[in-house]
Structures are given as C-alpha cells and as structure tokens.
Design goal:
about 300 residues, alpha/beta, Glycerol-3-phosphate (1)-acyltransferase, about 40% helix, disordered C terminus
C-alpha cells in the first residue's frame, strides 16, 4: 500500500461563514464550473480534428488546456506567477504535490499531462479537471506494468510532457518529501526518444493574509468538499509561484541520481519561494525530507 503523509494536527477548514461567505462561493465557483464545462465541450471536437491533422501530438489542445486552467484560477481569484521557461525537446516533468489545485496551477504554467492513479477518474469535480487536462491514468497492478510503460513511451514520442509527483502523496506545502527513485526508472527505458530530459518544477502556495500558511494544501484525511468550499469562501485569495528549473538530461544517469538531483532542485525552489515571499523558513523540518505513512492522496 502506498503512503499518505500525515503530521501534526489537521488544518481547520473554516468553510463559508454567513451570507457573505456563501456569496463568495457562488460568485467564484459558478463561473469556474462554467469555464470547465465549456472547456470540456470545446476540447472534445478540437481533439478529434487535431488527431486527424497531427496524430497524437497536441499543438492545439495543449494551449487550450492552459487557457482553461488560467481562466479557472482567475475565476477563483488565485494569483499565479511562473519563474523560468518550459523545456524544449522530449521529456517529462516532476513536481512537489500540495493540493488538488496543482492540476490548475501546473497546467496554467506549462502544457503537461498529469499521471495519476486510476481511482481519481471517479472523484466528483476532480474528474472534470482530469477530462480537460487529458490525465494519464495508471493502475497499480504489476501485470499492467509493461503496457503502461509502452503507453508512457508512446506519449513521450508524440511530444506529450507527462507530469509525475515523485513524493507519491500530497503534503501541507511547507516541505518536500523524499522522491521515490522507482518512478524514475521509466525515464531510462531504451525505447524513449534520444535526448530525453526531466524538468523539475517547484510549486509554492502563498496563503491569503492572516490565514494558515497551509491554507491551499490538501493532504492526509482531508475531505475534498470542505476544502474546496473553504478556498472559494476565503475573504481574500493568495497566490502561487511556479518555478521551472533547468532540465536534467537522462543520458548517463541512474534512477537514483535523477531522483536525488530532481528532489534537490524542487526543495530549493520551495524554500527560495518561501523566503522571497517574506514567510519565515522556520526550522529545517519545514522543507526537509519527512517519511510518509499509509495510503496516498494524489490528484
């Protein structure tokens, strides 16, 4: 069984308070849902035409997904900023994992296709996001490993950038867990394109003024519905900084060396963004490796 990170007391979820709180939920949530539904309605025929013209490549639907995610973030009121440039050439992306908002935030920053466990496809609300973003689902079944590896290779050869969460679970956003080296073995398969690289990405969420620094994080046993309502009902919204680090060439690497180098860059990006925001870095435990326990909550 995979791991879910837990540490300390769970974060209180204030939720909507009074008429004003529920009005903010409606004012932000309704436009966001409409944008998502319109995005799904448009991307299905667009992808059909794109497939006829470009095969598995995504020169049209990639930017479409980016636009949809940026509009949803604008509807919610969450500000975002990108530092660095997306990689060129074939490759994959690895990032730290803090929230269901990662789907919107990371897609807004660069065209990617998320890799997630198959169960996520049935989660209410999240399943709409996965449809818009063409999420790549994997089943934790050794009998399917070879077929799933071939699908990963086929997508990579088609120019898709698959995004993995090597921590294997989400956290409170104030730390980065150890990256699992086994995930990086797929980046070293011989049938992948020559010149393949892995781009580490750090996502650092800035809570609204006066709110718990973990406000946007979703981890452990937290329910999606109450967390979503708390985000929508916030009197003020915060933001997120997405740092795109220089890509790491896979040639000459081992899965362990790729995991270590990627983890170092992602952790440094999270710590640097915290310091730039004026938040206290605190003790090293805020960003140091912490071993997870139990079952995963990856979006």
């Amino acid at each position: 069984m995979s791991a879910t990170w837990r540490e300390g007391d769970p974060m209180p979820l204030p939720g909507p308070r009074g008429v004003a709180g529920w009005w903010r939920v409606i004012r932000r949530g309704l436009p966001a849902v409409l944008v998502l539904l319109l995005g799904v309605a448009l991307i299905l025929p667009l992808r059909g035409i794109e497939r006829l013209v470009h095969g598995r490549r995504r020169p049209w639907t990639g930017p479409h997904v980016q636009l949809v995610c940026r509009l949803v973030l604008a509807c919610i009121g969450i500000r975002w900023r990108r530092v660095g440039q997306p990689m060129r050439g074939p490759g994959a992306v690895v990032a730290n994992h803090s929230s269901w908002l990662d789907i919107l935030v990371l897609n807004a920053a660069l065209p990617v296709i998320f890799v997630s466990k198959a169960e996520v496809a049935s989660w209410p609300g999240i399943n709409i996001l996965t449809r818009v973003t063409d999420t790549h689902f994997v089943a934790r079944d050794p009998r399917l490993a070879a077929a799933q590896a071939e699908e990963f290779a086929a997508r990579t050869r088609a120019g898709h950038r698959l995004l993995f969460f090597p921590e294997g679970t989400s956290t409170d956003g104030r730390r980065v867990l150890p990256f699992k080296p086994t995930l990086f073995q797929g980046f070293l398969a011989p049938d992948l394109p020559a010149g393949l690289a892995v781009q580490p990405v750090s996502a650092d969420y800035r809570a609204p003024d006066g709110a718990d620094p973990r406000f946007y994080a979703w981890w452990g046993d937290m329910d999606l519905g109450p967390h979503l309502l708390s985000v929508l009902a916030a009197p003020r919204q915060g933001g997120v900084v997405v740092t795109l680090h220089p890509p790491l060439a896979t040639a000459g690497q081992t899965r362990k060396s790729l995991a270590v180098k990627s983890e170092e860059l992602v952790r440094a990006g999270v710590m640097g963004a915290m310091l730039d925001s004026g938040l206290p870095a605190g003790t090293p435990s805020h960003i140091s490796p912490v071993q997870p326990t139990d079952t995963p909550k990856d979006a």
